[in-house]
Design goal:
Elements: H1 6-15, H2 26-32, H3 37-49, E1 51-54, H4 61-72, E2 82-83, H5 90-96, H6 99-109, E3 113-121, E4 137-139, E5 144-150, E6 161-163, H7 192-206, E7 211-213, E8 220-224, E9 229-231, E10 243-250, E11 254-256, E12 267-270, E13 284-286, E14 289-291, E15 298-301, H8 305-334, H9 336-350
Antiparallel strand pairs: 1-8, 2-3, 3-10, 4-11, 5-8, 5-10, 6-7, 6-9, 12-15, 13-14
C-alpha cells in the first residue's frame, strides 16, 4: 500500500484547483495547519454541514442596523428586496466588507474573497429550496459563498432561513441534467420549476433533514455555494425580518451563470462582477491565465479554431460558387439570344408599347 506522507499531501493539494474543504486530503491538511483548535472546529463544522454561524463583530451594530433599516424603507419594491444597495448606502457596503467576515472567508477558502452582490430584505422571502450554484457559479467549482446577516432577531415565526445540512456535498445540478439547454431560454426562469422539482425529488431520495435557523440580531451565517436552502413560511404576518445577504466569489476564477449557459455548446453567460471593496471590475482567470471577455453579463459564444477553419472553408466554397454563377450569367448576357431579347425590349419601349418595363439583366436582377 502506498503510504502518503504529509509533505506529499501538501504537494498534491497544491495541484488541486479546488477549495481545500473539497480536497480528499482535507482532514490531513486541517490537522497539520497552524490554526488554533477553535478555528479548526469551525472549519470542520463548515466542511461537514455546509454552513457556519459567526459573530461578524461590526462596531456599533445596533446603531448601524437601525439606521440601515430606516434608510432603506423608501426603496423597497415588490417582491420586497433591494439588490446592490451598497451602491448608494454606506452601511450596506460596510457590512459587505466587514473585516471579521473577510478574515473567516480567507481561512475557509484559502483565497481572497470578493464581495460582488448585496440583497436587503424587510421580511422573510419564503423562497423555495435552491442552491446558489445554479445562479452563481465559477471555474474551478466551489469558490463562492453567501453570508446572511440578521438585522433583527429571527425565529420560527417571522420566516427563518432553512437549510439541509450536508447537502452541499451533492453533485452540482443545472438544467443540462434535465435535458434543457439553458442558453436558449426566452427568460432566465422559463424552466426553473423543473429544477425545483428535481431538488424536491433529491431531498426525498436521500431523506435530507430540513433545519430552520433561529439567529440573533447581529449574528451572521455563512453557507457554501451548493448548500440547499430557502425561506420558511412566515407564521406571524405582523412581524418583519430585516436582513442582508452578501454574495462572495473568490479570486482567480472564471465566473458565470449556469442557469443561462451551455458550456459544452460553447454558450456561456459570463458574469461581469464588481468588487464591492474596490469598486473595480474583477477579471476572469482560468488556470492562472487571465481571460479577456468582451461580452460579459450576456451569452458569450466561444468558437474554436477548428470551427473557424470550417467556417473559412464554407465561406471560400460559397465565394467560389458565387463566382462561378456570375461567370455563367455574364456568358448568358453576352450571348446572341440575350442581345436580341434586350433589343426587342428597347424597341417595344421606344414604340410606346410598354410603360416602365425594365431591360432584364441577369447579373443585377434577382
Amino acid at each position: 500500500m502506498l503510504q502518503v506522507t504529509l509533505p506529499e499531501i501538501t504537494k498534491t493539494q497544491a495541484l488541486l484547483n479546488c477549495p481545500w474543504l473539497d480536497s480528499p486530503f482535507f482532514e490531513e491538511l486541517l490537522a497539520q495547519s497552524n490554526l488554533d483548535e477553535q478555528t479548526k472546529q469551525q472549519i470542520k463544522q463548515f466542511s461537514d454541514n455546509g454552513y457556519l454561524i459567526i459573530d461578524p463583530e461590526i462596531d456599533n451594530f445596533d446603531v448601524v442596523a437601525e439606521r440601515l433599516i430606516n434608510d432603506l424603507k423608501p426603496h423597497y419594491l415588490d417582491p420586497g428586496r433591494i439588490q446592490d444597495a451598497w451602491k448608494f448606502n454606506d452601511d450596506v457596503k460596510h457590512i459587505a466588507v466587514a473585516p471579521k467576515v473577510l478574515s473567516i472567508l480567507r481561512i475557509l477558502y484559502q483565497r481572497e474573497p470578493i464581495p460582488f452582490q448585496t440583497l436587503n430584505f424587510p421580511r422573510g422571502t419564503e423562497q423555495s429550496t435552491h442552491s446558489d450554484s445554479i445562479h452563481f457559479h465559477c471555474i474551478p467549482h466551489g469558490f463562492m459563498c453567501g453570508v446572511w446577516l440578521a438585522l433583527e432577531d429571527v425565529d420560527s415565526e417571522n420566516g427563518p432561513l432553512h437549510y439541509y445540512p450536508g447537502s452541499h456535498k451533492l453533485p452540482y445540478f443545472d438544467l443540462s441534467n434535465l435535458g434543457i439547454s439553458g442558453s436558449y431560454q426566452q427568460h432566465p426562469y422559463e424552466r426553473y420549476d423543473v429544477y425545483e422539482d428535481l431538488l424536491k425529488a433529491v431531498i426525498a431520495k436521500y431523506q435530507l433533514k430540513k433545519v430552520d435557523i433561529s439567529i440573533r440580531k447581529g449574528q451572521a451565517l455563512i453557507w457554501a455555494a451548493n448548500l440547499l436552502h430557502g425561506g420558511s413560511p412566515i407564521l406571524d404576518p405582523n412581524r418583519t425580518r430585516h436582513s442582508q445577504v452578501t454574495h462572495y466569489y473568490f479570486s482567480d476564477c472564471l465566473y458565470y451563470t449556469p442557469l443561462l449557459s451551455d458550456p459544452f455548446l460553447k454558450r456561456i453567460y459570463m458574469k461581469k462582477i464588481t468588487n464591492i471593496m474596490t469598486g473595480e471590475i474583477v477579471p476572469h482567470y482560468y488556470n492562472g491565465k487571465r481571460i479577456e471577455v468582451e461580452a460579459e453579463d450576456k451569452i458569450k459564444i466561444f468558437t474554436s479554431e477548428e470551427e473557424l477553419d470550417k467556417l473559412r472553408l464554407e465561406l471560400y466554397q460559397t465565394k467560389a460558387e458565387l463566382k462561378k454563377t456570375n461567370h455563367v450569367m455574364r456568358a448568358m448576357e453576352s450571348s446572341k439570344f440575350w442581345q436580341l431579347r434586350n433589343r426587342w425590349f428597347m424597341l417595344r419601349k421606344a414604340l410606346g408599347l410598354v410603360k416602365g418595363e425594365q431591360i432584364y439583366n441577369p447579373i443585377n436582377n434577382s
